[in-house]
Amino acid sequence: MKRPILIHPDPRLKKVVDPVTDVTDELRKVADDMLETMYDAPGIGLAGPQIGLMSRLIVLDCVKDENESPRPLVMFNPKVIAASDEKSVYEEGCLSIPEQYAEVERPAEVTVEWMDRDGNPQSETFDKLWATCVQHEIDHLDGKLFIDYLSPMKRQMMTRKSQKLKRERARA
Ligand code: K1U
Ligand code: ZN
Predict the structure, then answer these.
(1) Are strands 121-126 and 110-115 parallel, antiparallel or unpaired?
(2) Phi, psi of 71 (to 5 degrees)
(3) If we measure between CA atoms, which residue out of 10, 49, 15 comes closest to residue 30?
(4) Residue 51 burial (CB count, 10 A)
(5) How far apart are CA 84 and CA 110, in angstroms?
(6) Looking at residue 152, what is its pLDDT?
(7) Dihedral of CA 90/81/125/23: which sign?
(8) In what order do the strands lie in the sheet with 45-47?
(9) With contact defined as beta carbons under 8 Å apart, do 76 and 20 qualify?
(10) How many CB atoms lie within 10 A of CB 103?
């Protein structure tokens, strides 16, 4: 089932959300709904708070090539345990700030630990778009948006545009 995506500004997108203590069937169903919502959007990642779930759950799949098999990842309590000194810059977007993009600099490689959908611990080192996306999604769990890396003026401009779009969508 697809879930509605919250649009910035929304107080739920600014909260640090709670760890998951138990991977229940209910949470597995939410993760499946999040993947469906992400693929439909379309997007390459989605975090719990974006659908109003105030728990540390993210999903991502950065395979863009249609000839490659999809690689949906479900991460409960994801945590960056190591980050490279080397940085990379990507033009980021956010499904909660539609139609707006900006370059953000982040560590080029990160090692992430998480719990998978069976409750088993996992870890992997990500690079390129995967590294950017997993950091963007973990930021959502800490109430941080990609516009928080920009100048106050750019952030305000993008917030105003998003507010306008949100109002228009509510009226439609
Ligand atoms: O968290 C989100 O809001 C999802 C966001 C993730 C993201 C994008 C770019 C850099 C870092 C993180 C998106 O998926 S925005 C949409 C998007 O980037 C995209 C859409 C279709 C095809 C490919 C990418
Ligand atoms: Zn986002």
Answers:
(1) antiparallel
(2) -135, 75
(3) 49
(4) 21
(5) 6
(6) 98
(7) negative
(8) 45-47, 57-60, 73-83, 110-115, 121-126
(9) yes
(10) 11
Residues forming a β-bridge with 142 = 16
Active site residues: 137
pLDDT less than 50: residues of the chain: none
Q: Which long-range contacts (CB under 8 A, 24 or more apart) does 166-169 make?
A: 166/7, 166/8, 166/9, 169/7
Give the distance (Å) from ligand 2 centre to CA of residue 150.
14
Report the candidate in 144, 3, 136, 1 with the shortest Cα–Cα distance to residue 78: 136
- With beta carbons less than 8 A apart as the criterion, state whether 31 and 59 touch: yes
Residue of 63, 71, 94, 97 to test ligand 1 pocket, by largest number of atoms within 8 Å of CB: 94
CA 8 to chain CA mean position, Å? 13
pLDDT digits (tens, 9 = 90+) for 124-165: 999 999 999 999 999 999 999 999 999 999 999 999 999 999
pTM greater than the 0.90 cutoff: yes
Place of tokens 């917030």: 159
